[in-house]
Amino acid sequence: MAAAPPALSWALPLLAALAGAGGPQSFELPGAPIDNIEVSGGVVLVAGGSCLYELWPELRPHRRVVPAAAGQGCGEPPGMRSNLLLPYEEAGGTRVLLAGWTQKDGTCEVWEQPAYRQRLNRSEVVSCLPDGSTAGVVLQLDGNWYLAVAATYSAGRYGNHLGCEPSQSDEATVITVRSIENLESKEELGIIKRKEEPLHFVDALQWRDHLFFPYYRLKARSGEDMEPPSMAVLRQLRLSEGGLTMQGHVYLDCGCRNLIVSSSLVRQGEQGWWVGVFRHSAKAWNATAVHSHSAKAWNATAVCIFGMEEMKEKACTSTHFMNGKSCEARSIKKLPTLIHSGLVAVYGTLVLNQIVLFLGTDDGQLLKAILNEDMESNCPEVLYEIKEETSIFPKLRLDPVNSNYIYLSSANKVRRIPVANCGRYVSQQECLSAKDPYCGWCSLIRRCTLKENCTRANSINGWYNISRAPEKDLKILLTFPGKNQVAVTASISKILTFCMVKIVKPVEIFYENVVLQSSSCLCNLTTPVITDKDCLILEASLSSSSWNITQTFQLKNCSLCIHKGECASCKRTRVSPATTCQDNCNAAASKEITTAQETEHISIHSIEPLWISTLGKSEITVKGENFTRASGIKLILTGMTGCKPDIIKVRNVLNDTQMTFALPPTRKEAKSICIQANGKKCSPPVTLHYVSPPSCLGITPNTSWISGGRKITTIGRNFNVVDSVIISDDQRSNLTVSRCPGNESQYHYLTPSLGHATEGKVVDMMLKVETTFIPCVKLHYHPDPVFINYQLHTELDPDLELKIYKENDNLNISKTEVEVYLSYMNGAQTKKIWFSVQNITKKPDRSTILCKYKREGTDKIDFSTVKVFVKLGNFEHEVKPTSSHIYLYVLILLPIVVGVIIAAFIVTRYKSKELTRKQSQQLELLEYEIRKEIREGFAELQMDELDVVDSFGTVPFLDYKHFALRTFFPESGGFASIFSEDVPQSRDQTSKDESFNMLHALICNKNFLVTLIHTLEKQKNFSVKDRCLFASFLTIALQTKLVYLTHILEVLTKDLMEQSSNVQPKLLLRRTESVVEKLLTNWMSVCLSGFLRETIGEPFYLLVTTLNQRINKGPVDAITCKALYTLNEDWLLWQVSEFKTVTVNIIFEKIPENESGDACQTIQVNVLDCDTIGQAKEKSLQAFLNKNGFLYGLQLDEIGLELVSEEQQRELLDIDGSSEVMEDGIRKLNTIGHYEISNGATIKVFKKKANTRSDVDYSDEHCHLILPDSEANKDVKGAGHKGKQKFKVKEMYLTKLLSTKVAIHAVVEKLFRSIWSLPNNKAPVAIKYFFDFLDAQAESKKITDPDVVHIWKTNSLPLRFWVNILKNPQFVFDIKKTSHIDGCLSVIAQAFMDAFSLAEQTLGKEAPTNKLLYAKDIPLYKKEVKAYYKAIRDLPPLTTSELEEFLTQESKKHENEFNEKVALIEIYRYIVKYYDEIVSKLERERGFEEVQKQLQQVKALFDEKKKCKWL
User: What does the alpha-carbon distance between residue 346 and residue 341 come to, in Å, rounded to a whole number?
Assistant: First the structure.
């Protein structure tokens, strides 16, 4: 037995990245299409690319299984396909999976889940043909499990065997029963063989004690077989009675369609219904279609439903099988329940005793149809459309855990789609009238929802659906009370407001409001004489005050009933409009069409166009005869079954042979279209294709020269509905371009001229469809090509060779685009010869066009009259020849120029000789210094590496309260301290305080709060600081009501957009000038605090730590804090002298303050010889922390350093008697070098006796590495000091900035990518919600510029939140931020924001260094940011319940964090300050009477408190 396949508990980054690229939750197979899908035991199984993937219900990857047949792994061998997935559960709960693969002669593997341990692997079980069918079902007999499998083991002359042809004895085998223990085929279990023709099996079904296999003959695919498909029925007997036996098969007639493409079984109590999608074979349809513009005709596919019992009873004949007895062939004929142009998948289920069908189409639509008890369909709803319009996989499956979702597979992607879109029904009546069994009215939130989305769905009147609808049993009843009379009544007695009866066939006649009675209506039929052979279709519509209904009836044998009142033989059947009169097959249909054409007064020859977009068409043209003599001309547009046809009156009869109609917009589908006139029958139907608006995928080439005329090819979809291509230029009106021949997926056109443009520019290419302009791609215009000269070679007589030289450009011109001709004079005539362009070669300085011409005959060319022309599209240019005179000029002028240069050189050299001698020594010294510094800087840049801190202990996060207060009040320390006080454990007093409760209730009134904020913002003295404080107080007061706070944020943001839209929408949320902008910052801080702590905290702290380490690696001036290693030029220490590293042994004594420490320990510490004693202390304490993981126990000013030597022990101080004093009295701080401390020296750390600071406060009277005033005095002549440093150039040290950037680059990128990546393909809820909100607002405001939405998102998240965090690590961690660190973080924050900017950076040599440092990284970051924004947009939208659940959890986390009473008091102070203005505003607005009373009560209560000095 083969080795067990690897069962991998995996979470491959590749698949995690691929998951969720579309709108709904999704999973994408890496580089392979989906072969099979099944659900089992709470997981989803997807097969493809030679592998099986186990997914969680929400399509997160869980496990990948490589079958034994695959050998090397996924994708190997190529072409291997899964054709069987059958899960079942054994006794004891063991789950087993049978998986069939086309490899190795059709192997089947038996796996035990969930570990996927292989039990068995046997070949020749399933079909090994690439397109061979396999269908199976697992059944239990006498306690044992068996597999009944039907397969196309041999395709005969219809398939490619690929070396997997079975033995001759097994060639005819089609159905076998095998024990799952060994999967062997045995006669005693049952072997069914076919006769001559190979069969294709679509499905396998088990119904009670019978097995059903729908199939068709393989030759039906090619149109050679018009025989209907069949259903094979087998009796499932006990083994003792002979195993499985063939009962026979029955033909399934679904409107003469001869293929089955998908199948589903619906169980309804004791009844079972088989639902099949039937299709015409292409050849069969084209043979009978009247106007066959496409194989995808409007009625090419249909859904028919057959009863399982009826098929079982009628299955008898064995025409196709050797087994069983021969008997007369039987057929079951059904009218299609649904007709459509391209159905490929069906899944049926029962919901509230109603059959619901989910249907997939070949253009990527998922439809939902609801059937009534008469198996009539409503107008199917489009649940989802795949943007790429790829065909749906034939198998649809419901979510095994939550049946409110269905899995939709297409190409290499499976999506999880909700089964209903209840939110589109806005009222209770609309919700219930839709008759969608999934949807119901949730009384608590007064919305139409799924049951699971209604919080009190199980309570009385909490959630009710169509079972409670008043018209759930509503039907129309027809009676014929008298001659030529019909009475229409409703099954529910109610006063009618409208009644209409319409005869649809054979002639359309309306009867409106004829004798309308209280609960019925009566009308006299004025129909022509109708025979029993006619198919009479009658449509009735009734309306009352609460419902309206339309039903269609097919009347058979009713001529006597209508004309004479004898109705015994009249049959009235409710039918769907599109399935009426479908009894006759091809020959009869053709005959009917012929008869119709003969009896018409008008004749239809053509209808154009027959492909239009879903936007509709303002004009289609119908050509034919006798139009001017006809009356009542109308066009009938019929779509999918159950949907009401559109009846369109003629728009304009142009003449006797032409007329026009205007077609309305509708959804994507192929519809039938016919013309009716003079009350006669409709013309033969023609297929009209409604397709989605065109879309562009690419363009080649993407450039043009300004003169235009270049042929452009655009790749995309549905270009056959494009009216024209528009080139939009900002300086002139739109240009319509001329179209070249193309097809549905390619659009060719010639670029127009931009003659007004002098430089290159970018224009927008748009597709015009009706009145809609669809953005396509951008086209780059470059200046016309510049041709330098040419060389004509005549020595190859009679051939001519021409070389044309042109300047290099970005046009990428090909040789097929260039036309070259030569004109010359032949007497008085001008003659032309056209060259053949051989190739175009490009060199660094120019390009060469090589052309050749083969002369024929004896024509002589006068080369003195030759002119050469180059033509590219509209651009034509004469090229000048290479001039020989220029060489003569060069030869004459060259000696003169050389002589002048030599003379000038001699004179200049003579004059500067003395000056050079005097300056040589200074220059040599300067040159040496510069060379040394630059070489050292270069070497350091190439070789220096920073040992990045990989272990920094526990990250010192601040708790939530302090984090929130520092972000809420960054500059108001007083308020932060008030709220930092612990909240009293007993809050009874507050809860009993009526004033605070009433104020809180008032703030929780949305209308009042929004009005209050708008009123405050209109006050002139309500400053920006007040707005920010008010927003923070409000955030704290509503900390436990985040759902409500989010609603307020939505309303205020929309209001802010209304204010900004009239000025400049791109400025929205850029500044903090309103309450809502600060409120958004606070809201992001609250909602992202968890994400910040869990995901961003560690890389952020690593950056701060690494930056500190890098700064301290080199000299740092103790006075100014400037350092040699920095990111910010303003903090660069460029006056530093040479320095070296000194390694010393630091002895730390045991102290009482450090209980964790051992006895005395010695640590090696690296210091610099230019470090002050204070800096040496800091590095010593840091070394102790790095080694032990805890602090030493004493502060910096509590310890001293003592140099230990054999001679003596000496205390080290920054300032002592030995300190160097400069000429102007400035004292220099002592350093390690000052004390002449060398490598290996021992220094002891001791505790100072008195806890008083011995260090001085350094001022301008002290210096360290630079003089305090050197920056100001360095250019003053004669200013000299004793310790004056060597000449330095600041720019020499700019490499230190770059070396610092390189050292921390990996840490910075890790931080950036942790911010703009989606771990586990999930975005934080707050970010996803707010970005979707901004997208929705842009769409509602019809803002089509994507840059606007990008800027909104950037202003709301990176600018308002992340930059604030990046520049202020003390908001997140318990650390102190130095001014130097602040300067470096500002550079990083600037680079971070540049990554989100849409503006292209054009940096010159004089650009600031903080911009230049990250200039090369920014383009990559920008791509990642755009991908980040797109990934968030493509994630499935959040449901309201998901958002509210998140906000509720966040609210609970922060209960009792803050003293809300303090926040309410501060809010009240603002209310009191502007009380009169607020009351005035409330009085002017309607509906605020009750609010005014509450506000007055609040004020009265607080005034009372004030008297008692409570406030």
Answer: 14
Q: Could you tell me which of 1131, 1168, 1134 has the C-alpha nearest to residue 1287? A: 1134
Identify whether the C-beta of residue 1313 lies closer than 8 Å to the C-beta of residue 1417. Answer: no
**Residue appearing with tokens 């305090």:** 1268
CA angle, residues 625, 534, 337, in degrees to nearest 5: 95
Residue 1378 CA to residue 943 CA, distance in Å, equals 29
3-state secondary structure of 738: coil
Q: Provide the token pair at 619.
A: 């004009």
Average pLDDT value for the chain: 82
Which residues, 6+ apart, have CB-to-CB distance to 319 below 8 Å? Answer: 195, 249, 326, 329
* Three-class DSSP category at 40: strand
What the block records as the tokens of 944 is: 């220096």
17: Cα within 13 Å, side-chain hemisphere: 7
Cα–Cα distance between 747 and 1357 in angstroms, integer? Answer: 40
Query: pLDDT for 690-733, tens place per residue?
Result: 999 999 988 999 999 999 999 999 999 988 899 888 888 765 56
Q: Is the pLDDT of residue 292 over 50?
A: no
Cα 50 to Cα 63: distance, rounded to the nearest angstrom: 14
Residues 992 and 987: their CA atoms lie apart, in Å, by 9
The neighbouring-strand residues paired with 211 are 206, 234
Separation CA 40–CA 977 (nearest Å): 57
pLDDT tens digits along 823-834:
988 878 888 889
- Here the tokens at position 1081 are 């910052």
Query: Do the beta carbons of residue 303 and residue 357 sit within 8 Å?
Result: yes
Q: 924: Cβ–Cβ under 8 A, 6 or more apart, which residues?
A: none
CA distance 198 to 220: 10
Cα angle at 379 between 374 and 382, to 5 degrees?
130
Asked if 610 and 687 touch (Cβ cutoff 8 Å), the reply is yes
* Nearest C-alpha neighbor of 633 from the set 687, 689, 684, 682: 682
Place of tokens 């995901």: 1095
Question: In this predicted model, what pLDDT tens digit does every residue of 987-1013 receive, in sequence order?
Answer: 444 444 778 888 888 889 888 999 999
Q: Distances from the Cα of 713 to the Cαs of 716, 722, 878, in angstroms? A: 10, 14, 28
Strand, coil or helix: 121: strand
Residue 458 backbone phi and psi in degrees, to 5:
-90, -5
1206's CB contacts (< 8 A; 6+ apart) are: none
Radius of gyration of the chain (CA): 43
C-beta pairs of 588-594 under 8 Å, 24+ apart in sequence: 589/288, 590/288, 593/290, 593/684
Average of per-residue pLDDT across 101-109? 87
- Is the Cβ–Cβ distance between 659 and 633 less than 8 Å? yes
User: Is 985 within 8 Å of 979 (Cβ atoms)?
Assistant: no
| Residue that the structure tokens 């069908």 belong to | 357
Q: Residue 1362 carries which DSSP code?
A: I
878: enclosing H helix or E strand: strand 875-879
Please state the separation of Cα 404 from the chain's center in Å: 23
- The residue with tokens 């199976």 is 136
Given the DSSP bridges, would you call strands 686-691 and 611-613 parallel, antiparallel or unpaired? parallel
pLDDT at position 1062: 47
Instruction: Identify the bridge partners of residue 623 per DSSP, sorted by sequence position.
Output: 606, 658
pTM as predicted: 0.58
d(CA 1212, CA 1239): 16
1355, HSE (Cβ side, Cα atoms, 13 Å): 19
Cβ-count burial 1190-1229 (b if 16+ within 10 Å, e if not): eebbbeeebbbbebeeeeeeeebbbbeeeeeeeeeebbbb
Both tokens assigned to 723 = 């009216």
How far apart are the C-alpha atoms of 256 and 279, rounded to whole Å? 9
Tokens of 574: 């409710």
Structural contact between residues 1035 and 1082, judged by C-beta atoms closer than 8 angstroms: yes
